[in-house]
Write a structure and sequence with these properties.
Its main location: nucleus. InterPro entries: Mediator_Med24 (IPR021429). This is Mediator of RNA polymerase II transcription subunit 24. It comes from Timema monikensis. There is one protein chain. With 629 residues, this protein is mainly alpha-helical. The chain has a domain of 208 residues. It is built from 33 helices and no strands. α16 runs parallel beside α19, α22 runs antiparallel to α23 and α26 packs across α31.
């Protein structure tokens, strides 16, 4: 029976091959009265030359050839491991460098790693690569001296090729997977333990500077600041030793790079150098050796983790500059510079994401502008963007991108604090209402985190700081109270709409919900001036549309609305603070007036959500407020 099946299949295949155009000719021949013979022949010839069928056949052939490619790559991996098994003293460095550079070409590196994983030899490959990296960090003992070419080859072998390959492997698979459990004392393993940026494993930036020597740091700064845009590999310029053929100890150069990049950052912060000077220094740093920016980025990322949000912009700009395309034509013409720079970009980008993971915002994904293009402080940049959208009365795309960049660069606390300051600068009711709507729209870049920053950091400053509490006068107090109430209910809606158990919504549903359900944008408010009730902004049913609301509720059943962490804890802490402010004996002030306004807007805006939000309010809060006032 199986033989008959294969026979029939073969006959079917032969028959199909003999009549490849039956699917086009049959309907055309049956309607000869509707189409001319010439036109029918043209259609058949056009369909016969269609690239769709070859593309499908090509895709199938590529899928079938993947196992063959892996099988063919197994001998290549074996030859590489055999080459790495050789004695470093006897092997020719140029030949070894050529072999490793060939591995970096195209997709060869990924293919070799895939084969190593399949055969269980990934850790073996890493161990042998670490051995050669360790041997090439300084000249061989008893070798007398090395020429400039030999020094350059050793630098390429140690810094740019083997080190970048090891960094890429460790970042991809994890240090606990590819490195030995005992923990070796090689330069690379020590650098991974003390310096490499890993998520959940913060490193001390001061510890990275313990190997720095002032003289060598100054020598590196001189190299990076040289006008010829070249990084010399001679021992006299880098290692501060008498010139001749005594070789450079490249691991010492790598140890001193964090000290040099720290001096550049401090000089930039103090105004001793301009942004153009910093850009030129960073370009020189990566013009020849692609691993030097990796050492600099490791220190910058660790340093940013202990900085205040206001001081993050400059070091983040320096990291981002390393990720820009290289404009130096001489550098791009070097051997395997494209492959080496590609590995450098991959490693630096992974470090950057480990320190500052990309946030999920409602704005469509795009590349943020963190390049060194402005000498203004971030507060001035925010002021310029805010002034522009306030004049327009709406938030355009370019302003949205700039605001998202400032939010991700400076953090929610700084961002919300300064937005609230901009809102409270207005004195007239109409401008204040527009500013509240704009600020509410801006906070939707990350509504949950911005709401938490508003409730836990901004409001306490205005309620407990006597100087800032003087700004809580009318109409500013009502504007701030309204903004807080808007954000509370918007964050509540966001939590429930993005709940793990909620139904999966399409992209169109999410976009329509953003426009209609959650945020009272300025445009919607202006097109519907008759809607004066704030409760309608958050999905409250209109009295005249009770039938429509009841029918929609029957058609679309939704899970019950609940308050979850961290919003629940933030509201509990806020109500506790408001109770303390409202219960002060015999004191009537701007702060107690703000408490009253905030509760008023919670009731007006929330409708059926108000009871849920106010359930965490102490029972004695309203009574003590009425008793004292």
């Amino acid at each position: 029976m199986c033989a008959n099946h294969f026979t029939n299949h073969t006959l079917l295949g032969n028959n199909t091959q003999q009549t490849p155009l039956n699917t086009q000719q049959t309907p055309l021949n049956t309607h000869q009265t509707l189409i001319k013979t010439k036109n029918a022949d043209n259609i058949v010839s056009r369909e016969s030359t269609s690239p769709v069928v070859p593309r499908l056949e090509q895709a199938q052939s590529q899928s079938a050839s993947i196992p063959k490619v892996i099988i063919r790559a197994e001998p290549t991996l074996a030859r590489i491991l055999k080459t790495l098994d050789a004695d470093y003293v006897k092997v020719q460095q140029e030949a070894l460098l050529s072999v490793l550079c060939q591995v970096l070409t195209g997709k060869s590196f990924e293919l070799i790693l895939s084969v190593a994983i399949v055969e269980g030899k990934l850790r073996t490959f890493v161990t042998k690569l670490i051995k050669f990296n360790e041997c090439s960090k300084q000249p061989l003992p008893g070798s007398g001296g090395e020429t400039t070419k030999t020094s350059h080859t050793r630098a390429m072998l140690f810094i740019d090729v083997s080190f970048l390959m090891l960094c890429s492997i460790v970042h991809t698979y994890g240090s606990e997977v590819v490195l030995s459990e005992e923990g070796g004392d090689s330069f690379f393993e020590q650098w991974v333990r003390e310096c490499m940026v890993e998520r959940g494993r913060p490193k001390c930036p001061d510890q990275m500077l313990q190997y720095c020597e002032p003289g060598k740091v100054d020598a590196l700064l001189g190299q990076f600041n040289s006008p010829d845009n070249d990084f010399k590999t001679s021992s006299s310029s880098v290692n501060c030793v008498p010139p001749c053929f005594s070789g450079v100890k490249w691991h010492e150069v790598c140890h001193n790079v964090p000290g040099a990049i720290k001096e550049v950052l401090l000089a930039w912060e103090q105004g001793a150098v301009t942004s153009n000077d910093v850009k030129r220094i960073l370009d020189v740093m990566r013009s020849r050796m692609c691993s030097l920016p990796v050492f600099a980025t490791a220190w910058l990322c660790s340093y940013m983790q202990i900085l205040h949000q206001d001081a993050l912009l400059k070091p983040m700009n320096m990291v981002q500059q390393f990720l820009t395309p290289v404009a130096n034509e001489e550098s791009t013409q070097l051997d395997n510079f494209k492959e080496r720079s590609g590995l450098m970009f991959q490693v630096i980008r992974k470090m950057q994401y480990d320190v500052f993971p990309p946030s999920q915002s409602k704005v469509k994904a795009m590349t943020l502008s963190h390049s060194i293009i402005s000498r203004q402080p971030v507060s001035s940049q925010l002021g310029d963007v805010w002034e522009g959208i306030q004049k327009r009365g709406w938030i355009h795309i370019q302003a949205t991108h700039s605001l998202e960049s400032l939010l991700n660069t400076s953090g929610c606390q700084w961002f919300v604090t300064n937005i609230v300051k901009e809102v409270l600068n207005y004195r007239y009711q109409e401008m204040l209402e527009q500013a509240v709507d704009l600020a509410f729209g801006v906070f939707h870049l990350d509504i949950e985190k911005c709401t938490l920053a508003l409730l836990l950091h901004v409001l306490p400053q205005y309620l407990h700081n006597r100087l800032q509490s003087e700004e809580l006068v009318e109409p500013q107090a009502s504007a701030l109270a309204k903004l807080c109430a808007y954000c509370v209910f918007a964050a509540l809606e966001y939590q429930n709409n993005s709940a793990p158990g909620s139904r999966k919504r399409s992209r169109r549903d999410k976009e329509s919900e953003d426009l209609e359900g959650m945020c009272p944008t300025n445009k919607l408010l202006r097109t519907a001036p008759e809607t004066s009730d704030p409760a309608s902004l958050f999905g409250a049913p209109h009295p005249g549309n009770s039938s429509m609301s009841s029918s929609s509720s029957t058609n679309h059943s939704s899970p019950p609305v609940t308050i979850r962490e961290p919003l629940q804890s933030a509201l509990a802490e806020l109500f506790h603070m408001l109770t303390v402010v409202a219960g002060r004996d015999g004191e009537v002030s701007q702060r107690t007036h703000f408490v009253c306004k905030f509760l008023q807007f919670l009731v007006q805006c929330g409708n059926d959500r108000t009871r849920l939000v106010l359930q965490g309010m102490p029972n004695t809060m309203v009574g003590s407020y009425k008793h004292n006032h």
